[in-house]
Every structure is written in structure tokens, then in C-alpha cells.
């Protein structure tokens, strides 16, 4: 390597490291208890979830793999726990810890009131699915129009369609995360998962389409980015065309959840009868991940693709 090339590589290293950093999820959005089951006295006030006064329990509805939790809270009196850890009495305290995985649980005791200002989860890095140099670990579905290439920036790009790029590996219960940019207006793509290897897009699909009705992002067009396509629309479209966004998918048995830019937008339980194909029923067994090339207008780029099995040790 020449001195010039070596210098360029060193300058690029911080950007590469930043791109390989897992992106955090907001487990509470300050607007609702979407994705949670809450019992006892609870309310939403000034962008905070308030548990109490008195005994209350809030449990996150879907399992998450190992990671880190950062909680900002106020506990004026009494007792409370987060992930079985006791919380201190005080105002706007920050507590962080290594999360062992599972369903996060918050509790308050008698004569207690806990205000959650923010609750952030960051997964472990897991397995990288794209090396930024080649399509190693992926297979292009044959005889289709899409072109899958690696850009000079080290991004995975898909143009034209239809088409499908499939992983070699398969996963059942997992957290998947990628960054994506739609290089045009209202372009359509998606991430298929638990799909059947060697068959064309036979799985669940997390939709990618940054379009909404009128000026209301809570009214997605064609299900919207983060939707479980044809099963549950996104509750709002968070992402915007021509801007990088992060898409996170968690699949846990027949329960599926998605986040866009750290905001949860889908929480779907597949109550259909069990089937070998997710298009025909509830599929909980392992399958491939794939990137969809939708149509001739397709032009999207992906980077920072990774997967973490829920049962990662």
C-alpha cells in the first residue's frame, strides 16, 4: 500500500467505525405505551411515562438480545426496579447497565411514583452481513432485472427491478439492523426475512416506502417504511427519501416488531395457523434475509447490515 493510500485508509477509519456502530432504539417514545403491557396506575405526562402512585408494572412486549440499557428517570419517593435492578430516589437520574436479554420490566412499589424521561436500548454488534467490498455471503436470485453492486463508498446498492438478493445464512429469532437511503422519491423496496432459500421473496417483508397521505405521516401510503407488508401498516412514517435512516427488525416466535430511526412503528403478532411459508401462515422457523429490488425505478443503498440471534450467548 502506498503512503497516500495508507493515509486515505486512516482518514476513512473513523467513518467506518461509526458506520459499524449498532444504532440505539427508543423503547418509550413519550407519546404512548406502544410495544408495552402496563398494569396498575400509569399515565403519560409531558412526554414521560409515569408509573404509580402505588404498585405498577410495565413490561416490554418483545424479547431483545443482549445490549446496553440507559434509563433517565425521576423517583421522588418509594421503591422501583428496572430489569430487577433497584432504582435510586432522586430527580432526573441516569442509570445504565449491560442487558442480559429478554423482556425488559419496570416495577414500582407501594407509595411510589416513577417517571421515565427516556429509555434507550443499544444491541450488541452481532454478525456483520456486508463487508463493504463484495457480495460475499449473499446470492443474487437468477434471471431477474435488479442489479446489486458495491459502490465506491462501500455501500450495497440496488437498481432496477424486480429482483432479490438473498443471504446464505438463515435465522429464526433475531434482531436485524441496517441503514438505508432511498435515492429517489417514493421508491419501493423491502427486507424479507424468514424467507425460503432459493425461492423468490417467500417470507415476511419489512416494507421500505417513505410516502404518506397528504401531510400526515401517521397515514402511510402502501403500508409505509417499517410496516409488516400486507399484515400491519407502520403507525407513522418516520424516514424521509434521500436521507439515511436505520431500520431494525426483531422477530421472536410469532411476534414481530420494527423500529425506524429508533422509533417503534410496528408490533405484530401473527395469529394465523403455522405454515412453512410466511405468505401462507405464521412461520417461526429459520429462513434467509433478502433485499428486494421492486421495479425499474428502484435505486436504494444499504450499509451497516448486521444480525444478532435473540439467544446469542
TrEMBL record:
Occurrences of domain 3-keto-alpha-glucoside-1,2-lyase/3-keto-2-hydroxy-glucal hydratase (ranges): 127-307
Q: Which InterPro entries match?
A: AL/BT2_dom
> Per UniProt, what is one GO molecular function of this protein?
hydrolase activity
Keyword tRNA-binding present in the record's keywords: the answer is no
Which UniProt key words apply to this protein?
Hydrolase, Signal
The signal peptide, as residue positions, is 1-18
Name listed for the protein in its UniProt record: 3-keto-alpha-glucoside-1,2-lyase/3-keto-2-hydroxy-glucal hydratase domain-containing protein
Q: Which organism is it from?
A: Tuwongella immobilis
